[in-house]
Amino acid sequence: MNANRLRQFISKRVVEEGSCRLWVGQTSATGHPAMMLPGIRRKVMVRRQIHATLIGPIPGGHVVVTTCGCRTCVKTEHLKAVPLAEARRLAAERGEYFNRAVQIKRTLTQRARSHITEEMVQAVREAPTAKQAHERTGISLGHCYAIRTGARRKPLDSPFGALFSPTVPRRA
Ligand SMILES: [Zn+2]
Protein backbone atom coordinates (compact mmCIF):
# COMPACT_ATOMS: atom_id res chain seq x y z
CA MET A 1 0.00 0.00 0.00
CA ASN A 2 1.48 3.34 -1.00
CA ALA A 3 1.73 6.32 1.34
CA ASN A 4 -1.39 8.11 0.10
CA ARG A 5 -3.60 5.05 0.22
CA LEU A 6 -2.30 4.15 3.67
CA ARG A 7 -3.03 7.68 4.96
CA GLN A 8 -6.53 7.49 3.49
CA PHE A 9 -7.16 4.02 4.94
CA ILE A 10 -6.03 5.12 8.40
CA SER A 11 -7.92 8.42 8.38
CA LYS A 12 -11.22 6.49 8.23
CA ARG A 13 -10.37 4.42 11.32
CA VAL A 14 -9.08 6.93 13.85
CA VAL A 15 -10.35 9.55 16.27
CA GLU A 16 -8.24 12.50 17.37
CA GLU A 17 -7.93 12.70 21.13
CA GLY A 18 -5.65 15.24 22.78
CA SER A 19 -2.41 15.11 20.84
CA CYS A 20 -2.96 11.45 19.93
CA ARG A 21 -4.65 9.76 17.01
CA LEU A 22 -6.42 6.71 18.40
CA TRP A 23 -7.13 3.65 16.30
CA VAL A 24 -10.75 2.46 16.34
CA GLY A 25 -10.39 -0.24 13.67
CA GLN A 26 -9.58 -3.93 14.14
CA THR A 27 -7.05 -5.03 16.70
CA SER A 28 -4.76 -7.98 17.25
CA ALA A 29 -5.44 -10.54 19.99
CA THR A 30 -3.40 -8.35 22.34
CA GLY A 31 -5.37 -5.20 21.55
CA HIS A 32 -2.87 -3.49 19.27
CA PRO A 33 -4.03 -1.79 16.05
CA ALA A 34 -4.17 -4.31 13.21
CA MET A 35 -5.60 -4.30 9.70
CA MET A 36 -6.25 -6.60 6.81
CA LEU A 37 -4.22 -5.69 3.75
CA PRO A 38 -5.86 -6.24 0.36
CA GLY A 39 -4.30 -9.24 -1.34
CA ILE A 40 -2.57 -10.60 1.76
CA ARG A 41 -5.57 -11.83 3.78
CA ARG A 42 -3.85 -11.72 7.10
CA LYS A 43 -3.69 -9.04 9.74
CA VAL A 44 -0.70 -6.76 9.79
CA MET A 45 0.22 -4.41 12.59
CA VAL A 46 -0.86 -0.89 11.73
CA ARG A 47 2.05 0.85 13.47
CA ARG A 48 4.59 -1.26 11.61
CA GLN A 49 2.89 -0.40 8.32
CA ILE A 50 2.93 3.31 9.13
CA HIS A 51 6.56 3.23 10.18
CA ALA A 52 7.69 1.25 7.15
CA THR A 53 5.69 3.36 4.70
CA LEU A 54 5.80 6.88 6.14
CA ILE A 55 8.86 7.01 8.40
CA GLY A 56 11.38 4.48 7.16
CA PRO A 57 12.42 0.81 7.26
CA ILE A 58 12.21 -0.94 10.65
CA PRO A 59 15.62 -2.36 11.60
CA GLY A 60 15.74 -6.12 12.27
CA GLY A 61 14.76 -7.11 15.81
CA HIS A 62 13.02 -3.77 16.37
CA VAL A 63 9.39 -3.23 17.30
CA VAL A 64 7.35 -0.08 16.82
CA VAL A 65 6.16 1.53 20.06
CA THR A 66 4.43 4.80 20.91
CA THR A 67 6.35 7.54 22.68
CA CYS A 68 3.05 8.68 24.27
CA GLY A 69 2.59 5.21 25.82
CA CYS A 70 -0.91 4.92 24.42
CA ARG A 71 -1.92 1.42 23.40
CA THR A 72 -4.00 2.42 20.38
CA CYS A 73 -2.23 5.60 19.21
CA VAL A 74 -1.12 5.51 15.56
CA LYS A 75 0.05 9.10 15.17
CA THR A 76 3.15 9.12 12.97
CA GLU A 77 4.92 11.61 15.25
CA HIS A 78 4.37 9.31 18.26
CA LEU A 79 5.85 6.18 16.68
CA LYS A 80 9.34 4.95 17.27
CA ALA A 81 11.16 1.73 16.36
CA VAL A 82 13.09 0.35 19.33
CA PRO A 83 14.86 -2.95 20.02
CA LEU A 84 12.59 -5.63 21.52
CA ALA A 85 14.36 -5.47 24.91
CA GLU A 86 13.70 -1.72 25.09
CA ALA A 87 10.03 -2.25 24.20
CA ARG A 88 9.72 -4.82 26.98
CA ARG A 89 11.30 -2.42 29.47
CA LEU A 90 8.93 0.41 28.45
CA ALA A 91 5.90 -1.90 28.72
CA ALA A 92 7.01 -3.09 32.17
CA GLU A 93 7.36 0.56 33.29
CA ARG A 94 3.72 1.08 32.38
CA GLY A 95 2.78 -2.09 34.26
CA GLU A 96 1.95 -4.01 31.09
CA TYR A 97 3.05 -7.49 30.24
CA PHE A 98 5.02 -8.24 27.11
CA ASN A 99 5.07 -11.93 27.34
CA ARG A 100 4.09 -14.78 25.03
CA ALA A 101 2.75 -16.93 27.89
CA VAL A 102 0.42 -14.12 29.00
CA GLN A 103 -0.77 -13.65 25.42
CA ILE A 104 -1.59 -17.33 25.13
CA LYS A 105 -3.46 -17.33 28.44
CA ARG A 106 -5.54 -14.35 27.25
CA THR A 107 -6.24 -16.06 23.93
CA LEU A 108 -7.39 -19.23 25.66
CA THR A 109 -9.72 -17.23 27.92
CA GLN A 110 -11.24 -15.57 24.85
CA ARG A 111 -11.68 -18.95 23.18
CA ALA A 112 -13.31 -20.46 26.26
CA ARG A 113 -15.89 -17.64 26.17
CA SER A 114 -16.46 -17.94 22.43
CA HIS A 115 -19.47 -19.83 21.10
CA ILE A 116 -17.19 -21.31 18.43
CA THR A 117 -15.89 -24.57 19.88
CA GLU A 118 -12.64 -26.32 18.93
CA GLU A 119 -14.77 -28.98 17.21
CA MET A 120 -16.34 -26.28 15.01
CA VAL A 121 -12.90 -24.86 14.21
CA GLN A 122 -11.76 -28.33 13.24
CA ALA A 123 -14.81 -28.78 10.98
CA VAL A 124 -14.11 -25.42 9.32
CA ARG A 125 -10.52 -26.44 8.61
CA GLU A 126 -11.52 -29.84 7.24
CA ALA A 127 -14.31 -28.65 4.92
CA PRO A 128 -13.34 -28.61 1.21
CA THR A 129 -14.21 -24.92 0.83
CA ALA A 130 -14.89 -21.95 3.09
CA LYS A 131 -18.42 -21.76 1.73
CA GLN A 132 -19.13 -25.36 2.73
CA ALA A 133 -17.54 -24.72 6.12
CA HIS A 134 -19.94 -21.79 6.53
CA GLU A 135 -22.93 -23.93 5.54
CA ARG A 136 -21.95 -26.81 7.83
CA THR A 137 -21.17 -24.78 10.95
CA GLY A 138 -23.21 -21.59 10.61
CA ILE A 139 -20.08 -19.54 11.30
CA SER A 140 -19.96 -16.43 9.09
CA LEU A 141 -18.19 -16.84 5.75
CA GLY A 142 -15.63 -14.16 6.60
CA HIS A 143 -14.79 -15.85 9.86
CA CYS A 144 -14.51 -19.24 8.09
CA TYR A 145 -11.98 -17.69 5.70
CA ALA A 146 -10.06 -16.23 8.62
CA ILE A 147 -9.94 -19.59 10.41
CA ARG A 148 -8.82 -21.37 7.23
CA THR A 149 -6.03 -18.88 6.48
CA GLY A 150 -4.84 -18.98 10.08
CA ALA A 151 -5.71 -15.32 10.74
CA ARG A 152 -8.07 -16.53 13.49
CA ARG A 153 -7.81 -19.49 15.85
CA LYS A 154 -4.15 -19.89 15.15
CA PRO A 155 -2.85 -23.23 16.45
CA LEU A 156 -0.96 -22.52 19.68
CA ASP A 157 2.49 -23.88 18.93
CA SER A 158 4.22 -22.47 21.99
CA PRO A 159 5.73 -24.97 24.42
CA PHE A 160 3.67 -23.13 27.08
CA GLY A 161 0.44 -23.56 25.13
CA ALA A 162 -0.55 -26.78 26.85
CA LEU A 163 0.13 -25.46 30.35
CA PHE A 164 -3.00 -23.37 30.53
CA SER A 165 -5.69 -25.48 28.98
CA PRO A 166 -5.38 -29.20 28.35
CA THR A 167 -8.74 -29.04 26.55
CA VAL A 168 -7.30 -27.20 23.56
CA PRO A 169 -5.84 -29.89 21.32
CA ARG A 170 -2.38 -29.33 19.92
CA ARG A 171 -2.14 -29.91 16.20
CA ALA A 172 0.33 -32.58 15.17
ZN1 LIG B 1 0.03 9.27 20.88
Q: What is this structure's SSE topology?
A:
Layout: H1 3-11, E1 14-17, E2 20-23, E3 34-36, E4 43-45, H2 46-55, E5 62-66, E6 79-83, H3 84-93, H4 100-113, H5 118-126, H6 130-137, H7 141-149, H8 161-164
Antiparallel strand pairs: 1-2, 3-4, 5-6
The structure holds zinc ion.
Zinc ion binds next to loops.
CATH topology heading of the largest domain: Homing Intron 3 (I-Ppo) Encoded Endonuclease, Chain A
Distinct helical segment count: 8
- Relative helix content: 40-55%
Query: What is the C-level CATH assignment of the largest domain?
Result: Alpha Beta
Bound small molecules, by name, code or SMILES, are: zinc ion
The biggest sheet, with number of strands, parallel, antiparallel or mixed sense and barrel status, is: 2 strands, antiparallel
| Strand/helix succession | HEEEEHEEHHHHHH
How many β-strand stretches? Answer: 6
* Overall pLDDT confidence: 85
Secondary-structure-derived class: alpha+beta
Sequence of strands across the biggest β-sheet: 1-2
Q: Distance N terminus to C terminus?
A: 36 Å
CA radius of gyration is 18 Å
Spans of at least 5 consecutive residues with low confidence: 164-168
Would you identify the CATH architecture of the largest domain? Alpha-Beta Complex
Strand content: 5-15%
Q: In the residues, how many domains can be counted?
A: 2
> Overall 3D geometry?
globular
